[in-house]
Amino acid sequence: MADFSIRISPQVILGPDVVNRLSVMAGKQAERCLLVADPVLYETKTIERVTSILEANGMQSIVFDEIPEFPGSATADAAINLAKGSRPQAILGLGGVTTLSLARATAMAAREDTDLDSFIDGRAPAGPGIPFIAIPTSFRDPFLFTESFFISDSRDRSIKLVNTQPDLTRLVLFDPSLHASLSSKTSALACLEMILQSLEGYLSIKASFFSDTLFEKSLGLSFQALDGFIQRPDDPGNRQRACEAGFLSAYALAASSLGVGTALALSLNARYNIPKSSLSTILLPYIMDSGIKTRVEKMAKVALLSGEETTGLSPSEAAGKAIDGVRQRLGALRVPTRLKDFELELDPMVSVAEMARNLDLCSYLPRTLSMEDLYDILKQAY
Questions:
Q1: Within the chain, where are the H helices?
Q2: What is d(CA 86, CA 78) in angstroms, rounded to the nearest whole number?
Q3: Which of 149, 295, 352, 371 gives 20 to 30 Å between its CA and that of 43?
Q4: Are strands 148-153 and 158-163 parallel, antiparallel or unpaired?
Q5: Pairing of strands 32-37, 60-64
Q6: SS3 for 94?
Q7: What's this model's pTM, rounded to 2 decimal places?
């Protein structure tokens, strides 16, 4: 067995209403903070709730909420400039994966003497960043426990990986109560994207006994939460299971790697401004089918974790049932299942396949895939 090494630093608190402990925990980091928040959270008064919690403990907070539906590096630069002017002692991110990436970019770059484009182009931070606190509101963020994030480059609408300082993230709060505003369909899509991410990490050549244990638990919880959102949308236990799955998946991904499905979803999202969860959902069955060719025993285990009856079936037959089960769930949700449903043209997607292939995520696939292979996946999903 190859050597195993892992170091994950942020403190994690998970449970109902743990956000109420934010001021106590954040107060250990700073007295003045910048809150980078998804503006849609005003509808549920989540932003007001968080700022009130901070103020009740004497913490000053400035809110950056000028975030469009599909933000890129230009939005991050606006947040960075605000942070440079206000000089917060901590950066808080409140929202989904994209908002947390913007907040992480702000924490990384606000003490630097250049703009974000320099770091997108490969420059390393010269000094320590501002302590970052993450408060996810969409169950999953696969980059929570890594020292990198992805962002759309506003200059050419490409997706780029940016590396941060070590130990930038100091605290992560998983609070199921903050996800109550998500519709059952949106929550189900988040679970499907989480299944794709966990599956990719499970099949990756970087996977280990440690990550496999966490991925298997995450996949089981994700499928349970997904079925709950479809069949029992009012069950609050769905959110708890989804939060637990998101934590386990992100923790395991710090020791493994995402894969080609996520690389393609990120690239399509940056180029065409289509929600990444919808793209991940469309690509999921095709990534599962590819997994049968390389990790059939693991794919058979995924069938069990998804709740399929596999007694007496061969590994390949069991794995096929996992894919059938996902397609049945997509049918029940009545969501787009083809890229052409978004009125995209196929030929220009060659550049998307090339963009995705150049991402580091494609360095740890169970089998080597060329740009043409990635384009074939897009054609199948079209």
A1: 22-26, 46-56, 73-86, 97-109, 116-120, 184-203, 209-231, 237-253, 260-272, 276-294, 296-305, 315-333, 349-357, 371-381
A2: 12
A3: 149
A4: antiparallel
A5: parallel
A6: strand
A7: 0.93
pLDDT in tens, 116-156: 999 999 999 999 999 999 999 988 899 999 999 999 999 99
Q: CA 27 to CA 131: how far, in whole Å?
A: 12
> Would 11-179 and 185-381 be classified into the same CATH topology?
no
Q: How far apart are CA 8 and CA 32, in angstroms?
A: 26
Domain 185-381: state its class. Answer: mainly alpha
**CATH number for the domain running over 11-179:** 3.40.50.1970
Tokens read off for 130: 């501002």
In degrees rounded to 5, what are phi and psi of residue 28? -75, -20
User: CB under 8 Å to 307, separation ≥6 — which residues?
Assistant: 223, 224, 227, 325
Look at residue 137 and give its three-state secondary structure. Answer: coil
Compute the distance between CA of residue 84 and CA of residue 28 in angstroms, rounded to an integer.
21
For residue 36, how far is the Cα from the chain centroid?
17
Q: With b meaning 16 or more CB within 10 Å and e meaning fewer, what string describes 349-372?
A: beebbebbbbbebbebbbeebebe
Tens digit of pLDDT for each residue in 247-302? 999 999 999 999 999 999 999 999 999 999 999 999 999 999 999 999 999 999 99
Q: Choose among 192, 153, 145: nearest CA to 70.
A: 153
> Cα 107 vs. chain centroid, distance in angstroms?
18
What ranges do the domains of the chain cover? 11-179, 185-381
pLDDT at 59: 85
Two tokens, residue 257: 């790697």
Task: Return left, alpha or beta for 88; rule: phi > 0 is left, psi -120 to 50 is alpha, else beta.
Answer: beta
